[in-house]
């Protein structure tokens, strides 16, 4: 299996073969997680520390569960009461953690680049659980696994990513991953929520939902990230739903077998109609949550293999 990365900081530096390797391994963990007795010793003897500087439900629970099922010693730190809140710098925190000799460090941070900075200062493998508007690699990987299982492939699909593109690290990671897999990517949203220069990313840009969804295989809705907005990006939630919220009428422009995705948490009646979100024939939103555990297990196993290989290559 080909996966040489020391850390998982983003999709940008992963080769398509590495992405496929990780997804293939994650596929085995889907079956593992559905069986009784979900316990492995793959990470036995290793310590995993979860540091979430931003609140999270799905991602933090998923990483915690993944580590425990693989037999790691898992510790989740409460960053709301951490020394950083008392004035300690991120680098000092990294040095403190380094002295504890963790093996896997899972980090979510509100500032782009913060996770990369930590990775430069610690000796363990670092997994980016989302940093600012930069990247959220495991979300893109779990989305890719969900798509591959539903469509049988990742190559040459038409994927519409709709909503708040400007503030979304999920969108950025998915654009990078799907682009590497030669899929056609469409961004749909109001001009205020489409980043400047988006057309230079090798994507198509639409401000009309129906035109953007025409013939799409995958419809990926994004949450309105109001906590990252500092101005009037939309006139009102009601108007936004009317123009850019996904409902049955707009979805009819996509292919008949198009799947509907959302990374969560959802704002029902703002980004997506609640009935459509729960439609087991079109929505794969719950499958995305399930794939998240499997993908994170695969990512940690591959990084742990590389960690052990490097440790074995270092003379005593």
Would you mind describing this structure in some detail?
This protein is α/β, with parallel strands linked by helices. Helix content is 40%, strand content 14%. The chain has helices at 16-34, 58-69, 90-99, 114-121, 137-151, 169-180, 209-213, 237-244, 248-251, 274-277, 285-313, and strands at residues 47-52, 73-78, 104-109, 125-131, 158-162, 184-188, 204-206, 218-221, 259-261. Strands 7-6-5-8-9 form a five-stranded parallel sheet. Strands 2-1-3-4 form a four-stranded parallel sheet, with helices on both faces. α2 links the parallel β1 (47-52) and β2 (73-78). α1 packs across α5. It is globular and about 55 Å long.
Give me the secondary-structure topology.
Blueprint: H1 16-34, E1 47-52, H2 58-69, E2 73-78, H3 90-99, E3 104-109, H4 114-121, E4 125-131, H5 137-151, E5 158-162, H6 169-180, E6 184-188, E7 204-206, H7 209-213, E8 218-221, H8 237-244, H9 248-251, E9 259-261, H10 274-277, H11 285-313
Helix pairs in contact: 1-5, 1-11, 2-11, 3-4, 5-6, 5-11
| Distance from first to last alpha carbon | 27 Å
> How are strands sequenced across the largest beta sheet?
7-6-5-8-9
SSE pattern, N- to C-terminal = HEHEHEHEHEHEEHEHHEHH
What is the approximate shape? globular
What's the rounded overall pLDDT mean?
Answer: 92
Strand content: 5-15%
| Class per helix and strand makeup | alpha/beta
Count of alpha and pi helical runs: 11
What's the number of extended β-strand segments?
9
Q: Unreliable runs, pLDDT <50, ≥5 residues?
A: none
- Largest sheet descriptor: 5 strands, parallel
Report the radius of gyration as a whole number of Å: 20 Å
Which range best describes the helical content: under 10%, 10-25%, 25-40%, 40-55%, 55-70% or over 70%?
Answer: 25-40%
